[in-house]
Each structure stands twice: as structure tokens, then as C-alpha cells.
TrEMBL record:
CDD domains found in the cross-reference section: DPBB_YuiC-like
Keyword ATP-binding: no
Tree of life domain: Bacteria
Name of the featured protein: 3D (Asp-Asp-Asp) domain-containing protein
Boundaries of every 3D domain copy: 124-185
Pfam families hit by this protein: 3D
Provenance organism: Geomicrobium sediminis
Keywords: Signal
UniProt cross-references to Gene3D superfamilies, sorted A to Z: RlpA-like domain
């Protein structure tokens, strides 16, 4: 009984202190609860309007856009003219036996040389010769999207890159093998972590990189 009374007293005291602080703050600032509500609502509306305007102008990749739609949007609105280019032979690969010699269940299945899991999205994992494009290098490949060098391969020597796709059918249907001029967006330092790759994937800006000086 004594414990219950003590708890009630402390709760009542806390409520009284909170009420006193609230009243004092309102008197000092002149703000009411409605003012806070209206201010927060306005801030939210402004934020949403900015996002909508940016999206409508092509500055942000549209939410829920497919990879093809996102790449088309980037190619329409982004300007890569200030970035250096390099002509390469681009092929496609998968995580499967036909490309890596590994099957599902293998401890290294689906993992790139850098340790980052393979991924096909607006920013995809690709393989390259690290003497040409160090691990962590970001390329823009017209028709494919951003490729982040995360992998290597015994057959990937010199001016060759290997673009990741989920299936062999996707490789043949969407790419095959072709020469292409790629844009060197950001040169890597030889390493790539999952957090770094995730940060790339979360970048929704169509033209989210600063050209080199």
C-alpha cells in the first residue's frame, strides 16, 4: 500500500513539473500546441513539395522505378560530359556455375572478390581488371547503369569489364557482348565495403557526382 502511494505521488509530481515547464515555455516563446502542429505540418508539406519538384524535373530517380526506367532517366537528365571516358569490351556474368564455377550452397556463392554480395540495380556490382579500374571504382555504362567495381576474374584482363546479371537469360536478352565507352565517375582505392556499396545504392540523385577538376 505504501509503495503504491509513493508511485502515485511521484507520477503526480512528474505531471505537475511537466505542466509547469510546458506553461513556462509557452509564455516565453508565445508558441502553443497548435502552432507546433501547424509548423511541423508546414515543414512536412514543404519537404514533400521539394521532393515532388525534384522528381518532376528528373533530379531524383523515381521511387519504385525499374532498373531500365532508372537508367533511361539518368541518361536523359544527367550530364557526364565532364567525366573521363574509356572504351572497353563489356560482357555479362552471373553468380552461377557458368560464370564462377560455384553453385548455391557454396560458402562464396554470390560474393564478389571484395566481399560485397552481387547486386543488379541502378548501382550494380561489376568485375574489372584492378590494374585498369581499381576495386571501388564507379563507372557509368550507357544502357546498363552505374557499375561499381567489386569483383575480378581470370578472364577479365585489360580493357574488359564484366557486368552482373541475375540470370544467363538476362545476360543474353539485355546485354550480350559489346564495345562501349564508359564514364569514369569515381576512381576506387582498391577496397569496397558493404556499407560503401549500400551508400551508393541509397543515392537517388540522377547526377549525384561532382566531375573531377
Amino acid at each position: 500500500m505504501h509503495l503504491t502511494t509513493t508511485v502515485l505521488r511521484r507520477t503526480l509530481l512528474a505531471l505537475l513539473v511537466s505542466a509547469a515547464l510546458y506553461v513556462t515555455y509557452n509564455q516565453l516563446t508565445g508558441l502553443t500546441h497548435n502552432d507546433w502542429y501547424e509548423s511541423n505540418t508546414l515543414d512536412t508539406q514543404i519537404h514533400e513539395q521539394v521532393i515532388q519538384e525534384a522528381s518532376s524535373e528528373g533530379l531524383l530517380i523515381k521511387e519504385n522505378a525499374s532498373v531500365r526506367e532508372a537508367v533511361a532517366q539518368i541518361e536523359e537528365f544527367a550530364n557526364f560530359d565532364a567525366f573521363p571516358t574509356r572504351r572497353v569490351m563489356a560482357t555479362g556474368y552471373t553468380a552461377g556455375m557458368e560464370s564462377t564455377g560455384k553453385e548455391p550452397g557454396h560458402p562464396a556463392y554470390g560474393l564478389t572478390y571484395s566481399g560485397v554480395p552481387v547486386s543488379r540495380d541502378v548501382y550494380s556490382t561489376i568485375a574489372a581488371d584492378p590494374d585498369v579500374f581499381p576495386i571501388g571504382t564507379v563507372l557509368f555504362i550507357p544502357g546498363y547503369g552505374y557499375g561499381v567495381v567489386a569483383d575480378t576474374g581470370s578472364a577479365i584482363q585489360g580493357e574488359i569489364i564484366d557486368l552482373y546479371y541475375d540470370t544467363v537469360e538476362d545476360v543474353f536478352a539485355e546485354w550480350g557482348k559489346k564495345e562501349v565507352d564508359v564514364y569514369i565517375i569515381q576512381e576506387g582505392n582498391g577496397q569496397l565495403s558493404e556499407d560503401e556499396f549500400r551508400a551508393f545504392q541509397e543515392n537517388r540523385a540522377v547526377d549525384g557526382f561532382t566531375p573531377p577538376v
